[in-house]
Amino acid sequence: MSFFVFLRENVRWLAGGFLLTFFGSFGQTFYISLSSGSIRAEYGLTHGEFGTLYMLATLASAVTLSQVGKIVDVMSVSRVAVIIIPLLALFAGSMAYVDSLPLLLVTIFGLRLFGQGMMTHNAITAMGRWYVAQRGRAVSVATLGHQAGEAVFPIVYVSIVAGVGWRNTWLLSALLLVGIALPLIYGLMRVERQPRSSDGVEMNSAPRDWTRRDVLRDPIFWLIMVGILAPGFIGTTIFFHQVYLVELRDWSLELFAGSFVFMAMMTISFALIGGMLIDRFSAVAMLPTFLLPLALSCFLLAGIEAQWGIFAFMALLGISYGFSSTLFGALWPEIYGTRHLGSIRAVVIALVVFATAMGPGVTGFLIDFGVSYPLQIFVMGAYCIAISVVMAIISNRVAKRNLAITAAINSQ
Fold it and tell me: Cα separation of 49 and 407, whole Å?
């Protein structure tokens, strides 16, 4: 089945998954951090203090997500959407009226839990469960919502905030979620997709369905997570401190915000390419490669001070984001099956959220203590190179283990 035929025949469900991740942008770091300068100025917070508050809120959301995320295994996608979208809107509206640090903490907790966490979790779990042979393509299309959000919302925010202020911009975000996102997504996803004979046969499939308890006891899972956590940690860290980075390099904030469009274009292209490669070769086979562009982007950002470096960095980051966003959605069904996919992915996303929480807090304090921010970014790149070697070893071991389990099942 060609990619365009696949899109045409599945536009309803793919559009629903896309919109879930797109509107989940209001809980993503790149959007929240656009208000960081105003928040720090209003409450007199340093980079490290606000980073710590953000870290605590995100850590709390990660712990909560590991339990709340189980509902996608027992409730339909549309019913979950009806619950989480109004809650995301509630906390977006809360940001407009926050008047104390405790309320700010709770508000960021809600944005992270229902935006970055549950909106993405609902979308990608549905794609992993509904699709088999075209799973990589389905996941790649759904994850494009992230990139579309990164391309659209920073520019929209910068354009609106100058006229109405940062608080009213958040209020408009809440109204957008309730008035447009909720009816659109519910209308698209209220009918569950059923497998079709034209879907084809899956070549890269887990030989058995693992329970969440079994997965958490598997050493390979934890070794894979060492690599999976890197893009979220690094990307969140850089975007959270984007205002500081722009000031440090003497760059234009408007130019940096505009470069998100360039990154999104690269991410979209390589998410689609990654989806096709996964369907052909398997997600497991691609594990050793997804961190290499991210490493190069870190090295470049650490060493280049000219403004053209923004676009070179965003291009490489987009390549890595494109591959990794598709890979993360297709990988777990290949290794652990689909029966308990929701509860397994809830743990994965909780850990990813945990990593995104640690980034701003740790690097914020290092900045306060005088540790060079470019040096920190360089170290992140070196980490990616080292972990790519580990991923190559893991990829080989997973492939051999799946073959051994298949042989054992067939011999019974």
Answer: 55
**Mean per-residue pLDDT of the chain:** 86
Report helix, strand and coil shares of the chain as percent, to nearest 5.
85, 0, 15
The answer to whether residues 178 and 89 touch, using CB atoms and an 8 Å cutoff, is yes
Q: Which regions in the chain score pLDDT beneath 50?
A: 197, 200-203
Residue 392 confidence (pLDDT): 94
Q: How far apart are CA 264 and CA 324, in angstroms?
A: 14
> Alpha carbon of 295 to those of 198, 242, 263: distances in Å?
40, 18, 16
CA atoms of 383 and 315, how far apart (whole Å): 20
- State residue 412's pLDDT score: 65
What secondary structure does DSSP assign to 243-264, as a single string?
HHHHHHHT--HHHHHHHHHHHH
pLDDT at 204: 53
Question: pLDDT value at position 147?
Answer: 77
Give the CA distances from residue 391 to residues 226, 283, 317, in Å, rounded to whole numbers and listed in that order.
9, 12, 19
d(CA 269, CA 318): 9
pTM over 0.85: no
- Domains and their CATH numbers in the chain: 3-192+202-411 (1.20.1250.20)
- The answer to whether residues 34 and 157 touch, using CB atoms and an 8 Å cutoff, is yes
User: What integer pLDDT is reported at residue 187 of this predicted model?
Assistant: 93
The answer for residues whose C-beta is within 8 angstroms of residue 348's C-beta and 6 or more apart is 225, 228, 328, 332
Residue 201 confidence (pLDDT):
46
Instruction: Give residues with Cβ within 8 angstroms of 240, minimum separation 6.
Output: 29, 33, 36, 51, 54, 359, 360, 363, 364
DSSP H stretches of helix in 177-291: 182-189, 212-216, 219-240, 242-249, 253-281, 283-286
Phi, psi of 75 (to 5 degrees): -125, 155
Question: What are the pLDDT digits (tens) for 394-410?
Answer: 999 988 888 888 777 77
Question: CA 72, CA 79: separation in Å to the nearest integer?
Answer: 9
